[in-house]
């Protein structure tokens, strides 16, 4: 997620999926996490799968005035933007929400993502293959910060500028740099060998400048592993 415009309207099929998600039938739904939901799901779910969506890039283009910053000193968190490459992948975590829980979960997530995010529907590709879980592509809901929301930070800032903003920010969920570190580490553990240059380069900048990072450097994802999936990536 080269850069183009952010998602501003629901993707194909979203209206049907959102209608289903809002409780007008008894089907389960899927939710895709590409930020903090990768490592922490604070809602009930029936199943979780590692995997990816296509045609997007993950970028730290959204200000956070609640979870990782304040109105006076906003932090930065991720959103998705369209990629010029339709095969571009964003790796994350898919959660299957039971029909009995979906209204509660969606109300919770709508509140959690109220700072500029809207629901959209895309296709989710579970990976790796599993003998015990669904393997077919699934319609999945995700939250994307729209370009016209008040907290959209734009695409013109350099990684250095984003890093400086992150270093100075703390919100109700903790220090903004920790958000970056945890997301980067989750990506390395779940998807060894997969690159996310925007995320990993930002992490490097922060680790060089963050006095609380204790000088600890994470392994370079370009040289780590052989591209195969770790055991952690197979957990359900």
UniProtKB/TrEMBL annotation:
Keyword terms of this UniProt record: Lyase
Keyword Iron-sulfur attached: no
Reactions catalysed: glutathione = L-cysteinylglycine + 5-oxo-L-proline
Region (Disordered): 210-236
Species assigned in the record: Anopheles stephensi (Indo-Pakistan malaria mosquito)
Domain of life of the native organism: Eukaryota
Gene3D superfamilies: Gamma-glutamyl cyclotransferase-like
Entry's family note: Belongs to the gamma-glutamylcyclotransferase family. ChaC subfamily.
Name of the molecule in the record: glutathione-specific gamma-glutamylcyclotransferase
Annotated InterPro entries: ChaC, GGCT-like, GGCT-like_sf
SUPFAM superfamilies: Gamma-glutamyl cyclotransferase-like
